[in-house]
Amino acid sequence: MTAIANLPPDIVLHPLLQSWLIEDIGRGDRTTQSLFTTGVGVGEAKLIAKEPGIVAGLPIAARVFQLLNHQVSFVSQVPEAQPCQKGHVVARLQGPLDALLMGERVALNLVMRLSGIATLTRQYVEKIADLPVQLVDTRKTTPGLRLLEKYATQVGGAVNHRMGLDDAVMIKDNHIEAAGGIGNAIASIRGKIPYPLTIEVETETLEQVQQALEHGADIIMLDNMPLDLMRQAVQTIRATNNRIKIEASGNITLETIRAVAETGVDYISSSAPITRSTWLDLSMNIDVSTME
């Protein structure tokens, strides 16, 4: 499986990394800076997987160390989006020891978090790989980490849903309630949004599906519907307008995702790959035999 994942450009990524390094280093790394009072040596290190999983975030880790010192060489040993096994060396580093030591925690935290997301995402994707449906993520992300967590779901093989509220219109249950119905919500919004934003409507009943169809929704989400009801909704939408995209959402698990996919929806959205994933255990070891 080849995942297509794009990192944010450096002008976006670097301020995030700098802020996380500043958070960790504070007014200075008391341990490292006290060790190297007469000059900084050069050494080598390696990142080692302590359990199997899908690797994600190594290019980000490289930028962490290079922000601390551009002389750090970071060479990935496992390609991004590829599996690693317990004991695999996933990256090798060489450079000034103070940069290696000060960057270790931030770099590892990011790779461990993102690899955990990519690993669970891949498990979900593999459940539906032979069906004409795509897994998409959600906005249930860690504040400050959305760009990178959504990058990790891409690495795992999923497709990004909207990155933020400005990407598309999604009329959810509270919007419908506040507007006095689906028709009112769509009519009010359509004339105020820029082209080419799409309008997605969250529905829970066949009546709401029909209302979304009548008022020209571009995407219809079937939220928390029982499978039988979901099949009926898909058939109704396809018979009315085959160009409308259909998304299923709500309580998607590894055990249920295939049955949901088999109803004929185009997309399945789930927060689980991000919210239910665990970090992939990695460590960084300094090779003292190479120290200068």
Automatic annotation (TrEMBL):
Primary enzyme class: transferase
Catalytic activity as recorded in UniProt: nicotinate beta-D-ribonucleotide + CO2 + diphosphate = quinolinate + 5-phospho-alpha-D-ribose 1-diphosphate + 2 H(+)
GO biological process per UniProt: NAD+ biosynthetic process; quinolinate catabolic process
EC assignment: 2.4.2.19
UniProt keywords, alphabetically: Glycosyltransferase, Pyridine nucleotide biosynthesis, Transferase
InterPro entries linked: Aldolase_TIM, NadC, NadC/ModD, Nicotinate_pribotase-like_C, Quinolinate_PRibosylTase_N_sf, Quinolinate_PRibosylTrfase_C, Quinolinate_PRibosylTrfase_N
Domain named Quinolinate phosphoribosyl transferase C-terminal: residues: 117-284
GO MF annotation terms: nicotinate-nucleotide diphosphorylase (carboxylating) activity
Pathway: Cofactor biosynthesis; NAD(+) biosynthesis; nicotinate D-ribonucleotide from quinolinate: step 1/1
Domain Quinolinate phosphoribosyl transferase N-terminal, chain residue ranges per copy: 31-115
Function: Involved in the catabolism of quinolinic acid (QA).
Name of the molecule in the record: Probable nicotinate-nucleotide pyrophosphorylase [carboxylating]
